[in-house]
Design a protein that fits this description.
Shape: globular
Radius of gyration: 16 Å
Number of strands: 10
Strand content: 35-45%
Helix content: 10-25%
Number of helices: 1
Largest sheet: 6 strands, mixed
Structural class: alpha+beta
Order of helices and strands: HEEEEEEEEEE
């Protein structure tokens, strides 16, 4: 019985870490204004669209400040686009100017919350994991 409990606990500890490593969205543009439609998608390490490996229900996407994940706006559930890539199309909400990333609240990962990139990531001026919102 103790072995079963330890095995279950070990798996529960591994799931959030693997989900955090596996989910990382990029934007189809480098910058946008409030009201503009943006496409964000699951990206590989080079920023290319990466196919979803399965349907993953219970993942909510947010637009979060790069320097503070608690400053976020809910965008909606993660979906799969026509190319089989996890993605979301959204209108940039009325937020302060600055740098933003996609962040995730993942129920199947043990109710974890994490971002697509490192806190404090810089803007490259090219489409990638950081979106510059301007007025």
């Amino acid at each position: 019985m103790l072995r079963v409990v330890l095995a279950v606990a070990s798996v529960a500890l591994l799931v959030p870490a693997s989900a955090q490593a596996a989910l990382s969205f990029a934007f189809d543009r480098a910058q946008a204004r409030p009201g503009q439609v943006v496409h964000a998608y699951q990206a590989d390490s080079d920023g290319n669209p990466a196919p979803a490996w399965d349907q993953l229900d219970g993942v909510t996407l947010y637009l979060a400040r790069v320097n503070n994940l608690s400053r976020r706006v809910r965008l909606g559930p993660m979906g799969i686009d026509g190319n089989g890539v996890w993605s979301i199309d959204f209108r940039v909400p009325r937020v302060k100017r600055g740098l933003y990333m996609i962040s995730f609240f993942c129920e199947p990962c043990g109710n974890t919350y994490f971002g697509s990139t490192y806190l404090g990531s810089s803007w490259t001026g090219k489409p990638g994991r950081v979106l510059k919102v301007r007025r």
